[in-house]
Amino acid sequence: MRRPDPATGLRFAAVSLILCTANICAVARRSSYALLLDDEEDGGGGGDGSASFSFFPQTQPRGLVYGFYDESCPDAEGIVSSTVRELYLANPNVAAALVRLFFHDCFIHGCDASVLLDRINGDKSEREAAPNQSLRGFGAVEKIKARLEAACPRTVSCADILVLAARDSLVLAGGPSYPVLTGRSDSARGFYDEVGARIPSPNATYAVTLDAFARRGFTERETVALLGAHSIGKVHCRFFKDRIDNFAGTGEPDDTIDADMVEEMRAVCGGDGAAPIEMGYYRQGREVGFGAHYYAKLLGGRGILRSDQQLTAGSTVRWVRVYAAGERGEEVFREDFAHAMVKLAALEPLTGSPGHVRIRCSKPSYSNWENQFCKASTSARCRVGRLRCLHPSSARRISTSAWAPSRRRAPTASPRHPAAWRRVARSMAVRSRSCSGSPTPSAHARNGIFRTPFPGTQKPGTRPDATVKPS
User: Where does heme b bind (predicted)?
Assistant: First the structure.
């Protein structure tokens, strides 16, 4: 894909300044990617109260630019926007689904669309991890991707689609617009094992939540602002039912919940732990759309999730009060939220050769998948469909070439009996769809076929294949 002229950076800076209002934005410098905001409520004291609020990392995210697809797929962002609008008109809940999907993707290894992948060769996908099992919006992303593939095949990454769709759906739900940098690649793998440790639980204390966000580079203020996304969408009763029935084994409801709210939540949930409740639920009924009403609810003891209500239990309460302070608070919240979303979208961007552009968002592109995993994977379990590895298999199985003798003909090679090599070949034929052959000789060695000074205790599927014969 072509990289736009550097002048597009100036366009990005101009769009960025739209986010600033006369009262809030004191200065915006393209060189530092930072906005300085008034901090009238803070008074400069304590904790995280610096007036400096991070808008971008101090250096421009590597490989990301504004308008990346301007020439390679000029209608890309328009196609995303129009499709999101169509989906939103059919079901407004798609906005919250896409924003949550975006967060759960970017919070692990940056916005790389790894959360969209299905299982690869039986390895569990990110969407199977406990925090992700209630994610929705996968079909919406696939619909957008299908339209982009029809217009510009193999051009627009699923990672960029998700970032753009989250922004566009948020605007439709009443949220702020903000500039989106593009140029991301799609990951060729998921990170199932890391999801549980990185995504905060719905029952997390404010300290645990702050720590999880701090590990990803977010300040206290940014964390509180990002959680304002909980002003839209639904949450299933099973995620908070213990708060209204038997909190912490006490047999009583959580005493941080308003008493009237407890009864209202019980009425909605009844005995069905799968029933949903609107995150915007309030005494006067459902608050329509995205907004700072979320923070007013928390101050009234009406937070549905414990992790939300916990924002009033520590130093974070001062930002809850700032955002809940009427029109001025709404304005500050929307600014802060937009800035934090830009920062979230810029985490660890995957660009260039380590990634690729998928044809379907739930499946890795096979040629790139082979390329990456046959050369670099520490796992040899990389069978996929009818594929064969594009690279030479293990060095001892590389046949003699014109430029170098094969290592299997070397005096020190083991096994020395031709029958052993034939046995390896038969095993490799059985495993012909595997992108790595290394486990097969390892397995034979463990079974005593090879004479080797090292007992074969390594499990199959743990070493990559060599691509050259060492001299």
Answer: 230
